[in-house]
Amino acid sequence: MLALLTAGVALAVAAGGAQDSPIPGSRFVCTALPPEATHAGCPLPAMPMQGGTLSPEEELRAAVLQLRETVVQQKETLGAQREAIRELTSKLARCEGLAGGKARGSGATGKDTMGDLPRDPGHVVEQLSRSLQTLKDRLESLELQLRTNASNAGLPSDFREVLQRRLGELERQLLRKVAELEDEKSLLHNETSAHRQKTESTLNALLQRVAELERGNSAFKSPDAFKVSLPLRTNYLYGKIKKTLPELYAFTICLWLRSSASPGIGTPFSYAVPGQANEIVLIEWGNNPIELLINDKVAQLPLFVSDGKWHHICITWTTRDGMWEAFQDGEKLGTGENLAPWHPIKPGGVLILGQEQDTVGGRFDATQAFVGELSQFNIWDRVLRAQEIINIANCSTNMPGNIIPWVDNNVDVFGGASKWPVETCEERLLDL
């Protein structure tokens, strides 16, 4: 180690005294020496004497001390410079942050570190003032530009508020208009309803008057000498029997009818009760044969009556085994059983001529309406004998039904259906 220090001292002495070297242009070459070696391999130059001659050993010792002092001073200087650089850097960063916050108008307050600056803080304050003034000038310029644009567009400065007021006004106008339209619609609906009711009332009055004129003010030869005419296939022409049926365990229904409608004559009559619209129905619908429905059970009848002539039809039924018979013009054409057996006919229903009921007394279907004429519709609460039916069909006896008789005051007509005087037996003879 001592050898290395000796070599370092030699280099420093050589560098410092190169100008006084007695050998111009000479160079020193040094090599590392062990501790026990001498300095013969690295000749030292002669050093000036101060107050006397120093021995080589003392001279070396003084050089080493001086070198150590120099190294320590350099280290202290470097440390102080580094600390100063760090402090300046930190304060510069704080100043820049403070200046940036004030320039952005954050308004935040913090610790005042301006007095800690190692240099004059007036320069920094002046810079901050200039930055704030610049920002203020820019804000004023933007505000002036906004007002100028608003003025050029023909709008007030606070155009958002004006637009909202305008939109509110338009919305109120729209609501007023909608309310007016609703009032007009309601008024129009009321006027239309009143006009329709007045028209229907006038039409019904005219139809009633025409019906009275046509039947000669009910001046039939006898209470049963009339027919009900249903000339159109609609869902509003029909007749209604005022009386209703009691509970029945058997019945016979007879009537005269004439129809040339095709396909199918429609529904000559139907009886509906609550819970069962098809309690008793006679119907020929489309290309199907004539059907008898009891409690919605069906039997097809071998009857043919769509030739435009008067025909006398009788149907009998009993709840015992559901036996039924079908007569046309006094002749039995068919019989059967198991048609709603042991089911009594329910009372209190509605009996309609010319329409099939989907609900009690209503919901008629025009495709199932009867088109033609009906007369002598009678119902008995028993099965008539075959001879009785023949006598009724050939007009040899007059036997009204004991449950529903065919009389003028028991039949009402609606929707343009009308009553006409008729002698069915006389017209029947004319058809033969």
**Element string (H = helix, E = strand):** HHHHEEEEEEEEEEEEHEEH
Distance between the termini: 162 Å
**Order of adjacent strands in the largest pleated sheet:** 10-9-8-3-12-1-14
Give me the secondary-structure category. Answer: alpha+beta
- Major pleated sheet: 7 strands, antiparallel
Commentary on this structure:
With 432 residues, the chain is α+β, with helices and mostly antiparallel strands. The protein contains 6 helices and 14 strands. Helix content is 38%, strand content 20%. The strands form 2 sheets. The chain has a 7-stranded antiparallel β-sheet. A 7-stranded antiparallel β-sheet has the order 7-6-5-4-11-2-13, with no helix packed on it. A hairpin with a 2-residue loop joins strand 9 and strand 10. The longest helix has 56 residues, at 159-214. The radius of gyration is 65 Å and the shape is elongated.
Concise synopsis of the structure shown:
This protein is of the alpha+beta class and 432 residues long. It has six helices and 14 strands.
Keywords:
432 residues; alpha+beta; seven-stranded antiparallel β-sheet; 6 helices; disordered N terminus
